[in-house]
Amino acid sequence: MRRMSFVLVALAVLSPSAFAHENPSGAGTHYLRWAIVSHGNISTSDTDGLNDLDLLKEQYGDEFLYIWSDDPRYVIRDRVMVDRAYRASEEAKAMRPVVTRTGKNSKQKKFAAKRVKHQVREIFEEAKARHLAERVE
Length: 137
Fold this sequence. Notes:
By secondary structure, the chain is of the alpha+beta class. It has three helices and seven strands. The chain has helices at about 50-60, 80-100, 105-130; strands spanning about 5-10, 20, 30-40, 40-45, 65-70, 75, 135. Strands 1, 2, 3, 4, 5, 6 and 7 form a seven-stranded mixed β-sheet that branches.
């Protein structure tokens, strides 16, 4: 089996509350977490979903976006959407060495991580609207 390398995006920088937003329905706080499985890598917002990835890889292959939002969990296999999420993650990862050298650590890291979060949220909303987000039981 090919070895996967793991990239934790934003885990060390943002607290779990940074991934939260209010539900439009007023039902309280809503958490969005994700794992991007693509190009032999896994990029994830936190480690909570890593336990599910081996089983999901058996079922969905090596290219998908896994999103869990409070209790519901979804997989998006649309190649264009997975690539968009992957590129967003890679852009944030590429900023890390620049941020470290410039000393503008905190603000720029948070900005890069928030950008990934917003892009993943947009992809997720678009996938739901286009019925491309498969619910995982």
